[in-house]
Write a structure and sequence with these properties.
Elements: E1 5-9, H1 17-25, H2 28-32, E2 36-41, H3 43-52, E3 59-61, E4 73-77, H4 86-103, E5 107-111, H5 127-134, E6 141-145, E7 150-153, H6 169-186, E8 193-196, H7 210-224, E9 229-233, H8 235-238, H9 241-246, E10 249-252, H10 255-266, E11 271-275, E12 281-284, H11 301-317
Parallel strand pairs: 1-2, 1-5, 2-4, 3-4, 5-12, 7-10, 8-9, 8-10
Antiparallel strand pairs: 6-11, 11-12
Length: 318
Amino acid sequence: MNINHVLIVITEPKSVFLEILLKYFKSYNFKKNKKKISIVGNISLIKKEIKKNNYKIKINEILDITKSKKNFINIINIEIKNKLKISGYISNCFDKSLDILKKNKNIALLNGPVNKKTFLKKKYLGITEYLAKKTKSKNPVMLIYNETLSVSPITTHLPIKYVSKNINKSKIIKKVKLINSFFLKNLKKRPKIAVLGLNPHCETIERAGEEQKEIIPAIKRLRSEKLNIKGPFSADTFFIKKNIDYYDVVVGMYHDQVLTPLKTLYNFDAINITIGLPFIRISPDHGPNISMYGKNKSDPSSIFCAMDFLNKIDENNS
């Protein structure tokens, strides 16, 4: 797929996302980007941020993405009404974006982080599941991508006490296959995949743990289908240099098992990709970070990583 347009959802008004996004727009990387970029969000918030930082950025307010121009911030305005809660505003931004994506091809979605307590309100584990439900997509996969090493948790933002009950052979097989296909299609690469165990040292005091019941059978099945996959590995010693240098993707059983080491290794030089949707969806690998809002000190690496990734897809498909 060749991506010729990036649709950006601003989401939380009091978030560092708009700050780091504008840092990208004033960079040389934006000037040389051949893609059109359109923002779905409140135009007053964007203008206020531009003025506050004295940026020289060209704005093009539009009603239709066909009117978008290169090297402009094309903005589809979504009003924040006085009686409308922020969750309603964010919902309207996503609804408008999904309607555009449904009617147009070759567009990628890039959304800012959300406050899960105020927006998702316990209805969804995260944006991964929210977008899957909105697009009627089954088996969405969270892939935290870095050019050197990517990770993916089988369970996403699930409380740890529920993890073991949600690990099964079928889920592992489906998710790993989607990851493998994503790399083959978009990055033209047959990935080397490592799978971590659930229990410390992949051992348990019980007769048989999740490794023996679910994880090992899943790996054997995937190897029989010629996927380049090994495991299960003990999570406590996996993230050493020789493994990082060898593998492309590490599949863990729960969120912090794989995201903590990746963020320790690469800080904000990573993006969150949802695999299994009708379109490419990415987001920066950080939260709203309200405590840093308005300080103009946030690291924009994740936005640069996101745009570089989309350009890489085009290069591989040209």
